[in-house]
Amino acid sequence: MERAAPDHAELMDGVYRVQRHFYDATRKYYLLGRDRMIDGLDVPNRGTVLELGCGTGRNLVLAARRYPRAQFFGLDISSEMLATARTAIDRAGLAGRVALARADATRFEARDLFDTGRFDRVFISYALSMIPGWERTIALGIDALAPGGSLHIVDFGGQERLPTWFRAGLRTWLAKFHVSPRDELHAVLCGDCERTGANLSFEPLFRGYAVHAVVRARAIPAH
């Protein structure tokens, strides 16, 4: 099923039509903290895991191998990236455990896409910094959690403990790829935790280059 904002979907397809072929080979040098996040998912036996903005499927393949008794789902707005993801998942022999859909992470209906509406784990890896209306993606990710589930996020941080010249140069370079670090991320997560009664862990990584956040939902939904 395809549900995506046409303008942003077209932009992302344009950005990744060529880049998708060498994306993983280059991004491993500066998308830091992804494997640490995957290791910390601690997916329960026969659990369900959703990635928002799954891109090339790199994280889904690693997570599915790390947690062989779980079921995985991924959505992305770019048909170009999903083509690469499907190839990667097929090559890894994981097609039976990983389902993909094209959708906008700011307005998706998980049950319509995957026939399930709640997940034990949801994760977002370096996607919020590319999503207009990213605050809505966080809210939907939290709302998609099963009781006691958790949302895991890794993305660019504020670079507050790095040299000013590095921070300015990094942000200028990222902007060329339509990437904007979300300096308000902590405040937005705090607001969503207050709204839902969830707990937040927020950790700067590599002197603030990146952040790793975990939102843990209540074991029993609030009424």
From TrEMBL:
The keyword Methyltransferase belongs to this UniProt entry's keyword annotation: yes
Residue ranges annotated for the Methyltransferase domain, each copy included: 49-149
An MF annotation (GO) of this entry: methyltransferase activity
Name of the protein described by the UniProt record: Class I SAM-dependent methyltransferase
Any GO BP annotation: methylation
Taxonomic classification: Bacteria, Pseudomonadati, Pseudomonadota, Alphaproteobacteria, Hyphomicrobiales
Gene3D superfamilies: Vaccinia Virus protein VP39
Keywords: Methyltransferase, Transferase
Superkingdom per UniProt: Bacteria
Family matches, as PANTHER family: TRANS-ACONITATE 2-METHYLTRANSFERASE-RELATED
InterPro entries: Methyltransf_25 (IPR041698), SAM-dependent_MTases_sf (IPR029063)
Tagged with keyword NAD: no
Pfam families: Methyltransf_25
